[in-house]
Every structure is written in structure tokens, then in C-alpha cells.
TrEMBL record:
Keywords: Transferase
Official protein name in the record: TusA-related sulfurtransferase
Recorded superkingdom: Bacteria
PROSITE patterns, alphabetized: UPF0033
Family as reported in the entry's similarity comment: Belongs to the sulfur carrier protein TusA family.
UPF0033 domain mapped to chain residues: 15-39
Coiled-coil regions, chain positions: none
GO-annotated molecular function: transferase activity
Pfam family, one: TusA
Keyword Transferase (UniProt): yes
The keyword Metal-binding is annotated on this UniProt entry: no
């Protein structure tokens, strides 16, 4: 995991999966990662508490870089950099 300031991170795309239950946010992230260029960052918004555990596992498994997450009011902001 990189040491990047998630508050100032430039994101290429945002997936708003708030209100969607598992595995919805992960499926949305899988679809959206193909729409950002290699090296760009995808931000996933999710109110499902399991997503902040699911996304890092998925990112590592498929070769992307999980950058971390920030807690917001009732949801998580999760950041993944596309690596391939």
C-alpha cells in the first residue's frame, strides 16, 4: 500500500454503490476498473461494511493497488489504482 494522501488524491472515476449490499459494490468496482486507464485511481463509495475488506482482497488478487479508505458520514470511500 502506498503512502498517499487520500484526501487530495486525484481520482479518474467514482462508483457510487451506497445503498447496495454485498456483493453489489464489488461487482460495480469490477465493471468500473476497466473504464479507467492504467495508473489512474477508482474511488468506490459504499455503505456496506464488508466492502472495505472485500475490495483490498479483490485488488490484490487481480493485480491492482489498494490505496486505502476514508470513513465518511455513513459510508466508506475506497481507493484502488489500476495497475494493468
Amino acid at each position: 500500500m502506498s503512502t498517499v494522501d487520500l484526501n487530495t488524491l486525484q481520482v479518474a472515476s467514482v462508483v457510487d454503490a451506497r445503498g447496495s449490499a454485498c456483493p453489489g459494490p464489488l461487482l460495480e468496482a469490477k465493471k468500473a476498473i476497466g473504464k479507467v486507464k492504467v495508473g489512474e485511481v477508482l474511488e468506490i463509495l459504499s455503505s456496506d461494511p464488508g466492502t472495505k475488506n472485500d475490495i483490498p482482497v479483490w485488488a490484490k488478487k487481480v493485480g491492482h493497488e489498494y490505496l486505502g479508505h476514508l470513513s465518511a458520514a455513513g459510508y466508506e470511500r475506497i481507493f484502488v489504482r489500476r495497475k494493468k
